[in-house]
Each structure stands twice: as structure tokens, then as C-alpha cells.
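Quick one, C-alpha cells below:
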């Protein structure tokens, strides 16, 4: 079995977990899957050369074990650094970053610090793009466009609800390489929910497979949109197209929980006007692996490194995504026809 990216991805999507000799999709000679006993990193049980390293990083990764270890790390850090501070924050533990709606707490900072240490230890050679670290040093964001595998971390997505003592917050982690999302973890500490996804391996919530399905025929589309507190006048005008027959818009809560709602079929679509990767990376893969679709206003897939045409959407299925894109373009006086570049999903 060849372990180039093309062959590995085709194999992962067709027969995840298969062992034994397999023909190489790219025409390379076939050979058996290598049994590599040991630990992660350095090779988990049944581990294999990590497909996104393309031979340039010395290490082996068992992706199933990696999913489990990241799940454990996120759960552990949330239990230690986030939950004990929920509804227990002192005034000096909450500060503003760019304004009264952009808050950071000691829970955000400590959770990100611990996650950064644990995730980079799990995958040597990887780097972290975390919300709080990028706030301190914006140059860190450029790692999304570089060669190293990158963990994308939002330690507390929904800091305002967290500060208010509400349950609508979550911890988001995603793994990407060269702009492609590979893994996704969404944990809601207050409710105990945990969702994860792996490229080609489906989306899961508390051990149950997630299927986004399709909206109910004839019912208004349930659409969550960027919260007015975080939108500019131009963005508000772009979203005004949602106020039409057949659409039931509402302001969004924590982005990670809205993506989870789509993957569960509890929400039909979202319309967002900002592109910070830590808010969207985990959710986009979760929705795609649940059978949903995503696209930016010009019909192309969301790019982690930025430069996307706003607004963008994620939806339960492709027709719903197409419908939202048509509304976005009509609202801007653009051609309603689909541009080149298919919706992802």
C-alpha cells in the first residue's frame, strides 16, 4: 500500500482501518501496511507514517489513537482549567481585548497554554494557532499557510456566555495541514457533550454517528447569522438578504455549537461574516463529515488562511448552501448563477 496523500485519502474514505496488502492508487508498487508497535508519537499500535508529512517529518502516527489522545487532552484541560472557573470568575480575571464585546478570561489563557503544550507533544513538528496567542502576536496566524501541521485552538468559544455563567460555550480544536482540515474536536464542558470528526472517517457525537440530513420540505430555513454586536454596517447589509420568505434567521451563539447544531440536524444553515480560523475550522470539518456543505459567497471553499468572500455558509446539504449563496449574491446585486468552483460537500 502506497502512503502518498492520494492513496491514503482514497483508502481512508473507502475502507477505514483496513490492513494487509492494497493496490496503490497512484501506480506505485503495493506492499503491506507496516505494523509499528510502540507509542504515540513515534508510532502507535498499528501506526503508520503520517500521510500529511509526506516523508519530511520523522514520526509515525496512528490516527485513531491520535483522535483518542486529543479527546482526552481536551477533556482533561477543560475539567482542570475551564469548568472550575465557570460561574466563579473574579472581576480581575476578565479583561477586554479590543472592546467590550471581545473578552478574555484567565480560563481562556490557561486552557490554551495547556492545550498548546499537550497537542505539540502529541504530534512533534506541529505548531499551534490559538486565539489568545495570536492576539499577543498576530504573526503567529501565518502558520496556517506554512508546511508544518497546525493545531487550531479556541480554548473558550463563547467567552461572553462563559463570563455570564451560561452554558453556551465550548472548546474547539482542529488539525490541518497545507490548508486541509484533517481532524476536529468540539467539547461543551457545561453539558458534557463531545463531538469529533476525522477526514474521511465521519462525524461523531458522544459515540453516535452524526448525519446532518436535509431541511424539512416546505418549512422555513432555520439560519443562524453573525451576531449584530460583531458586525459592521456593511456586513449587516449583506446579511439583510436573509430577511425573506422561507427563511427564519436568528443571531448566532458560540460558533462551535452552531456548527454542531447543523451536524445534528437541529439547525439548517449559518451565515457568517468573519473568518478567524479558530472559530470555524473544527465546525467546518464536523459539518462536512456529517454530510453537509460549505462555501463562501463566490462559491469556493472556505480557506483557513483567509481572503474569503463574505458572507459564507455551512448547511445541512448542498441545495441549502446553494440557496444561501443565491441570497447573498442577490443581496449584493450579483449574478445569481453559480460561479466556477463547486460547493464543498
Amino acid at each position: 500500500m502506497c502512503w502518498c496523500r492520494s492513496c491514503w485519502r482514497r483508502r481512508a474514505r473507502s475502507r477505514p482501518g483496513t490492513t494487509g496488502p492494497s493496490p496503490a492508487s497512484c501506480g506505485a508498487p503495493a506492499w503491506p501496511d507496516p505494523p509499528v508497535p510502540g507509542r504515540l508519537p513515534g508510532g502507535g499500535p498499528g501506526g503508520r507514517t503520517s500521510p500529511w508529512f509526506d516523508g519530511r517529518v520523522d514520526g509515525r502516527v496512528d490516527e485513531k489513537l491520535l483522535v483518542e489522545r486529543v479527546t482526552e487532552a481536551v477533556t482533561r484541560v477543560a475539567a482542570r482549567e475551564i469548568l472550575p472557573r465557570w460561574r466563579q470568575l473574579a472581576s480581575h480575571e476578565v479583561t477586554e481585548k479590543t472592546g467590550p464585546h471581545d473578552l478574555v478570561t484567565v480560563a481562556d489563557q490557561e486552557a490554551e497554554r495547556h492545550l498548546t503544550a499537550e497537542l505539540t507533544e502529541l504530534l512533534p513538528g506541529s505548531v499551534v494557532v490559538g486565539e489568545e496567542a495570536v492576539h499577543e502576536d498576530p504573526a503567529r496566524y501565518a502558520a496556517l499557510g506554512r508546511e508544518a501541521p497546525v493545531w487550531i485552538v479556541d480554548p473558550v468559544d463563547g467567552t461572553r456566555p462563559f463570563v455570564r455563567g451560561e452554558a453556551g460555550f465550548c472548546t474547539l480544536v482542529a488539525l490541518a495541514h497545507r490548508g486541509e482540515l484533517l481532524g476536529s474536536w468540539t467539547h461543551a464542558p457545561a453539558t458534557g457533550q463531545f463531538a469529533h470528526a476525522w477526514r474521511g472517517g465521519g462525524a461523531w457525537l458522544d459515540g453516535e454517528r452524526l448525519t446532518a440530513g436535509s431541511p424539512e420540505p416546505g418549512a422555513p430555513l432555520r439560519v443562524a447569522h453573525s451576531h449584530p454586536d460583531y458586525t459592521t454596517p456593511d456586513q449587516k447589509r449583506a446579511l439583510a438578504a436573509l430577511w425573506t420568505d422561507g427563511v427564519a434567521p436568528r443571531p448566532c451563539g458560540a460558533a462551535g455549537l452552531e456548527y454542531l447544531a447543523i451536524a445534528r440536524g437541529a439547525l439548517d444553515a449559518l451565515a457568517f461574516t468573519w473568518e478567524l480560523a479558530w472559530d470555524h475550522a473544527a465546525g467546518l470539518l464536523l459539518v462536512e463529515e456529517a454530510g453537509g456543505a460549505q462555501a463562501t459567497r463566490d462559491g469556493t471553499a472556505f480557506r483557513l488562511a483567509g481572503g474569503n468572500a463574505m458572507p459564507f455558509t455551512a448547511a445541512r446539504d448542498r441545495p441549502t448552501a446553494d440557496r444561501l449563496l443565491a441570497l447573498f449574491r442577490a443581496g449584493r446585486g450579483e449574478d445569481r448563477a453559480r460561479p466556477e468552483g463547486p460547493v464543498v460537500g
